[in-house]
Amino acid sequence: MSADSATLTRPTSEPSGARPGVLHGLTWLVWRQHRAAAWTALALLVVIAGAAVYLHSATTSYQSANHITGCTLFGGGKRCESNQEAIWDYREKYRDGLRYVSLLGLAVPFLGGLFVGAPLIARELEAGTHRLVWAQSVTRTRWLAHKLALPLVAMLVFSALTSWIVSWMVTGAGQATIGLYWYDRVNFVPMGPALVGYSLFFIALGAATGALLRKTVTAMAVTLAGSGLVFGLVSWVRPHLVGQVSTLTKGAIPNNELDWIQGSGPATQAGHRFPSSFCDSAMGQGDGAYEKCLNKAGATYDWTDLHPISHMRELQFAEAGVCVVLAALLLGLTWWWVGRRAY
């Protein structure tokens, strides 16, 4: 057999590490670059799920054994009133554990932005390896699409699973019974779709920062700072993302621990509001001075602005929507910058 024929009939071998039928080309390259982060994320998910399963089992069993299911410290009927000590003991035993798991869930978007989003593009631009890929008939847009798609999809799935697990855990424990409420800053995001929105946004923020700065460590620092700033700002405007419910009552203000109270105070029958501090100067003067002050102003009613628990999902989806829009804007910026910038 001639050398030429030997060359023509020589079987081609698969490149080292290639896996036919599973991942190919750029997708396989992106997986190899992020597999350490993927395995770490999987380990974190296992830890969160394991802790949540244990706490769900322990809290539901305790509530059933001590007849405090659905009870609160401020209501629930005679059954609950006679078990106040059990409720305090229940909170002391399990509340911190549930809070720690919620904090782990809340950390997911920040970790994703810091360790996946920021190095996503910055590492290649800093090392110059992007030129090697672009020199092999791979366009910038195709390279960027593969770089972004796998981490974004993986983060979407990971954060969605995490939010479902945390929500299942806290709901099983009974928010009002355990004293961890849906509107608590630690619980609100990891209990719903807002966690998915933040995860996508922080990945996009990291990618955009890396493309602009081209320095991995610098991009990580800026991404972490930017993530914290945006989280704080959105948390501040959160109560205003959905219209509040206003009530006007005479006598005792209805007290539902699952309502997120935004403000309250005295009011007239016609609905004219006074601040909550109105007539505070008359308190402690005796002889019904406080009541006389209110009656003189005609403030015999009470106003309350609140978000009932029925607003929980609406607020979470609204916040997730804000994050998704911001993520789309940042991805568009990254796409435009990488496509036009000379590297």
TrEMBL record:
The keyword Transmembrane applies. It comes from Streptomyces tsukubensis. GO terms for molecular function: ABC-type transporter activity. One of its GO terms (cellular component) is plasma membrane. The chain crosses the membrane at residues 36-55, 100-122, 152-183, 195-213, 219-237, 317-338. It comes from the Bacteria. This is Transmembrane transport protein. Keywords: Membrane, Transmembrane, Transmembrane helix.
